[in-house]
Amino acid sequence: MHSKTAFFTPTVSATIKQIDQGLPRACQHISWAIDYAEHGHVDPYVHTESQHCGRTELLIIDEADRLKTAGLEQVRDFYDRHSLGVILIGMPGIEKRLARYPQLYSRIGFAHEYRTLRKDELASVAAQRLPAPDPDDDGLAHTAAIAAIVRATNGNFRLADRLITQINRILDINNRQHLTPEAVDAAQEALLIGH
């Protein structure tokens, strides 16, 4: 088992108790999964390295901008008590907010702001996750559909992910083997994107 990364997303109104329980639980599940993969069973008394968060190397916290001051302090305390890396993912401006908390900000190694995807990057992502072109029409419908996805999402990866997931659902429900502009339109309507 190569992945030793835990993922945690706080609820919109996460309480201190939810965060205090959620962070260790997410990491503990990774440690147990590694134990199970290596030993065929989970026994933290026998395999003491997997107690608590012992085998988790990285904790990713999505929607970190939802955390209030006390929640950010919980994350800082958790980081201080365990030997693992922490990545906070949030909306633009989270770095400025974190800068107001010197105890936490002094532990930040760097900040990275994701840019929108270029058209060719988004087209590549979409092509990888969607069915292959129909050879009967020389891939024209596929090309038009990919172009519609690029236009509708404007480089926003999260929006593209939602749209592609919905397109795949629509194709599956309708037993379609190939991507069409009509499937993209139906997915856009279902998600209220670009209308």
Automatic annotation (TrEMBL):
Residue spans crossing the bilayer: none
InterPro entries: AAA_22, ExeA_AAA_ATPase_DNA-bind, P-loop_NTPase
Domain of life: Bacteria
Coiled coil feature spans: none
GO MF terms held by the record: ATP binding; ATP hydrolysis activity
Domain ORC1/DEAH AAA+ ATPase: 36-98
Keywords: ATP-binding, Nucleotide-binding
Keyword Endoplasmic reticulum: no
Protein name, per record: ATP-binding protein
Source species: Arthrobacter terricola
